[in-house]
Design goal:
Elements lengths: L10 H26 L1 H32 L2 H5 L1 H8 L2 H6 L2 H5 L1 H4 L5 H7 L8 H32 L3 H28 L12 H24 L11 H32 L2 H4 L8 H22 L2 H5 L1 H23 L1 H4 L7 H23 L11 H10 L3
Helix pairs in contact: 1-2, 1-18, 2-4, 2-9, 2-10, 2-11, 2-16, 2-18, 4-18, 9-10, 10-11, 11-12, 11-16, 12-14, 14-16
């Protein structure tokens, strides 16, 4: 197989157009909320934004993980991951409504709250919020730029030095990723209640975004694997490996989420339990139970099965279920800051993820079309191809 033998599936054009139409219509409908109920609009937009930005950001982490560890599982999802990372500039632009709504979203931006926060105002202020967000996005985009550029050059030249460069960059890149995700998790979500804090919150976001990205890329790969050129390369073995990694990330997210709750519950301090009190009452308590069952218990049991992990269609069902639960979990994190313990879901909570998701997916499919879907000159390509020919995939 050579470069001239591979291309991008034409059906991606249809997907891109459909996503763009859905996103544009959703954005127009959501825009009504900006004028009718801006407070609700901002909370709905924030939770949907945090969900969707997690997919390209989490894809960056998975891409670096693959460069560090190697393996055929990473080679077959290399292009879908790279395409996702190239949408980060769009997500920086889509941060604008949150920046414009800082005063309505975050209590620390109000003069009346500043006296209560004391030394926290040195960190929690509007210029700091904007500068830190830009810096974090800049770090992500620089890492994505080099990983994508070197991967493209490796395709052109077959020079294995690029593989070494990507591996060397990915080590410190993972450290920077954990640090920057912690920063934005604190700024965008935890500071909605500036008097509450958790040292586990950043790690919880790292795991959550990793789960989101992997679940999405499994669904994307299942579709792409039915078409040229991946249908000759991707098989049950790759989905099996991805299923095992998904199980590990689900368990990691559960560990962080339960550890945070256990530490706060055992401490039983008023300034800490204030986060969980409104989120475990009324309908929000039911949401906790749903997330526990459908985000951990059910995927855990399904992913223990070898047959589920090796069957692309069954694995996609689990992946989509996890993506839906990730969206519900972010809603559970953000919405009670607006509704309190009273359970309420607005129509904007439903439209916001559709609007942002449509725009992001349109950009994703556009990026996916710009490069061939197989990293032909990667050092691992021949071994993966041999496994496919031998039927051991």
């Amino acid at each position: 197989m050579t470069m001239s033998d591979v291309g991008t599936p034409l059906f991606l054009n249809r997907y891109q157009k459909l996503a763009l139409i859905v996103g544009a219509v959703g954005l127009v409908v959501l825009g009504i909320g900006w004028f009718t109920d801006r407070h609700q609009f901002l909370h709905s937009y924030l939770y949907a934004y945090v969900f969707w930005v997690g997919i390209p950001a989490g894809s960056l982490a998975l891409l670096m993980l693959q460069h560090l560890t190697g393996g055929g599982w990473g080679l077959v999802i290399r292009r879908p991951l790279e395409a996702a990372t190239r949408t980060l500039p769009l997500m920086l632009i889509l941060l604008l409504p949150i920046v414009l709504g800082i005063h309505e979203l975050y209590p620390w931006s109000h003069e009346a709250e500043i006296a209560k926060l004391q030394d926290k105002t040195r960190y929690l202020n509007t210029p700091g919020f904007i500068i830190r967000s830009i810096i974090c996005f800049s770090i992500w985009m620089v890492l994505a730029y080099f990983l994508n550029s070197w991967s493209r050059e490796q395709d052109k030249t077959a020079n294995r030095a690029y593989a070494k460069r990507m591996r060397i960059l990915s080590g410190p890149g993972m450290v920077l990723f954990v640090f920057t995700v912690t920063v934005v998790a604190v700024d965008w979500v935890m500071s909605l209640d500036p008097e509450w804090m958790s040292t586990m919150f950043g790690l919880l976001f790292v795991a959550a975004w990793g789960v989101s990205a992997l679940a999405f890329v499994i669904a994307a790969l299942a579709v792409l694997a039915e078409h040229e050129p991946l249908n000759h390369l991707v098989g049950p073995r790759h989905f099996h490996d991805l299923g095992k990694l998904l199980l590990a990330l689900v368990m990691l997210w559960t560990y962080f989420a339960f550890s945070q709750y256990l530490i706060i519950w055992s401490g039983d301090l008023p300034e800490e339990i204030r986060y969980y009190l409104p989120r475990t009452r009324s309908g929000w308590g039911v949401v906790v139970l749903i997330v526990a069952i459908l985000h951990f218990a059910a995927p855990f049991l399904f992913l223990l099965s070898r047959s589920v992990k090796r069957d692309a269609r069954k694995l996609v069902v689990v992946a989509v279920l996890i993506l839906v639960m990730r969206l519900v979990d972010f809603l559970w994190m953000v919405a009670p800051h607006h509704t309190g313990p009273q359970f309420h879901v607005s129509w904007m909570d439903l439209v916001a993820p559709v609007a942002i998701g449509g725009l992001w997916l349109a950009a994703y499919f556009w990026q996916l079309k710009t490069r061939v879907l197989v990293a032909l000159n990667d050092p691992q390509y021949e071994s993966v191809l041999e496994q496919a020919r031998a039927g051991g995939h």
